[in-house]
Amino acid sequence: MEDVLKTYEGRLPGNILRDLKKEATARNLNGKQVEKVLVYLEDQYTKAKIHPGEAIGVVTAESFGEPGTQMTLNVFHFAGVAEVSVTQGLPRLIEILDARKEISTPSMEIFVKSEYNKDPKEVKRIAGLIKETKLSEIASTFSINLNKLQIDIEFDKAMMRDLKITEDYVEKMLTESLKGVKVKRQESGGIVLKVETEENELMETYKLKEKVKDLYIKGVKGIKQVLPVKNNTEFVIITSGSNLKDVLEIDEVDDTRTTTNDVFEVLDVLGVEAARQVIINEATKVIEDQGLDVDIRHIMLVADAMTTTGDVKGITRGGITGEKKSVLARASFETPMKHLVGASLVGEEDELGSVIENVMLNQPVPVGTGLPGLVAKMRELFSSSAKVEKSAEKETKKEKKKE
Fold first, then answer.
1. Is the pTM of this model over 0.90?
2. What is the mean pLDDT of residues 252-267?
3. Boundaries of every domain in the chain
4. pLDDT tens digits, residue range 313-343?
């Protein structure tokens, strides 16, 4: 089988060959059977290729637009936890294709290393390390002592034990985070905060009380909620909120498989190739969740167009569409007067090299039969026939002269 597969390297994509090898091993196929399958695959692969001059941009736009009209506006929730929700359907597809920097429901899928991912207790412990803990979550009471103009904070001891947080650690975090505030431990284990300013002390104390509730204590900033779920044989942590850079620094996290649905975060941490892959994965997931079918090549073409400059650009007037060479193509999308006036002021020329501008001017579109003519020099193939034709021409000329 290995020898047969080697003969098809370069003729078929590596991915297809790998999948075939996997299936052939599972079904115990012999060399002849594998060769039969490869012949069929090559035939299908050749038929699936796009012809030169085909309007792939128009086909891709239509393949997204048609199923997009059938999408629902539902939001999918993970079972039992309303906080861990992910936008799905048309709103999510628009978010991806517009390349929005602030997405409505950032989420991560955190994989844990193999030595921990089978043990639910270990996964729960790691999830506790990842979740952002604020002071309000470990405090049982916040009260203002009006006589002393100070804030008394009592802690939930059970919660602190679960999260492995000590009073000393909390005191240290409060001292580092709050400037102009006295932080003092009580014998009961609570903490007292007092504003050092003398001006409008009561108002400042009230402001401080609200401010300290949202103070960061432990965990990864931005991860608001965590949910360990079983995925086949292992446990995976689903999050609400995203912070890929800090999560990848945690020792127990498998940094080769952990992902986020925030394209720009992936771009900053892993680069443009990874961002392209996230666009493909996220768009595919939305389409498949809706029970629709769009060829992967259309999705890949859109992802390529969005990332070809080395940055992620949306299909908007500020992104790809606004950077088209053709003035008329830009004007046809949005804000036509702005584009036409801007082009007039600088004397911009339109080469009429694309579809839209030629449709506007009622000219043949440069796709399919409108492609430029190709002239090929076939010296070797036609040299003998050309000689025959030349000799025939000479003969006819001589005959004409005689006449």
1. no
2. 91
3. 2-48, 133-218, 333-370
4. 998 877 887 778 888 888 888 788 988 898 9
Q: What is the rounded distance in angstroms from the CA atom of residue 140 to the CA atom of residue 297?
A: 55
By the 8 A CB rule, do 97 and 263 touch?
A: no
Where would I find the H helices in 197-240? 201-213
Q: Where are the alpha helices (DSSP H) in 214-326?
A: 244-248, 263-270, 272-289, 296-307
Rounded to 5 degrees, what angle do the CA atoms 92, 95, 99 make?
145
Are residues 68 and 90 in contact, defined by beta-carbon separation less than 8 angstroms?
yes
Distance CA(189)–CA(193), nearest Å, equals 13
Please identify, in words, the CATH class of the domain defined by 333-370. mainly alpha
Arch. (CATH architecture) of 133-218: 2-Layer Sandwich (3.30)
Q: Quick one: tokens of 262?
A: 């925030």
Same fold, 133-218 and 333-370: no
Picking from 363, 356, 369, 291, the residue whose alpha carbon sits closest to that of residue 327 is 356
